[in-house]
Specification:
Blueprint lengths: L1 H32 L19 H29 L3 H19 L6 H26 L7
Helix pairs in contact: 1-2, 1-4, 2-3, 2-4, 3-4
């Protein structure tokens, strides 16, 4: 089973890096270019300190690649459970975007929530379309 996950990761490396670049560009445009608020800094629990924009932009690359790598594993796992893993993977991805989009409104300001939702769409839509294509039928056959 682990071999299938490794092969899926190898097949999707370029796609994961592309999505990470899109996340970095999106975060940079929204926070540095347009000056939108970032969410609250996770290391400051009882204050209203916002995530530094440059750090948020850099962290967006790492977070997008790591999260999408996890979704590659989920897709590969779904391939063992169903004959149509793309469909179930996309359904779970859309559900995540809706649930997290709602949850984002507790991340600080209304502007930060809008920025996070735009950023997640910048990552989510390419991920929902490109990751299944990068895996193809041959890389997930069991």
């Amino acid at each position: 089973m682990i071999n299938h996950h490794i092969m899926a990761m190898k097949a999707s490396v370029r796609t994961l890096l592309l999505i990470g670049i899109l996340a970095t560009a999106g975060a940079g445009i929204l926070t540095l270019g347009m000056g939108m608020d970032t969410p609250w800094a996770p290391w400051e629990k009882q204050s209203e300190i916002m995530f530094p924009p440059v750090l948020f932009t850099a962290a967006s690359f790492v977070a997008a690649v790591a999260f999408c790598a996890g979704t590659v594993v989920l897709h590969t796992f779904l391939a063992t459970l169903t004959n149509d893993p793309d469909k179930w993977w996309r359904v779970s991805g859309v559900m995540f975007l809706v649930i997290y989009g709602t949850y984002s409104f507790g991340s600080g300001t209304f502007e930060a929530a809008i920025m996070l939702n735009l950023l997640h769409l910048t990552v989510g839509i390419p991920a929902l379309t490109l990751i299944p294509r990068s895996l193809g039928k041959k890389s997930i056959s069991f």
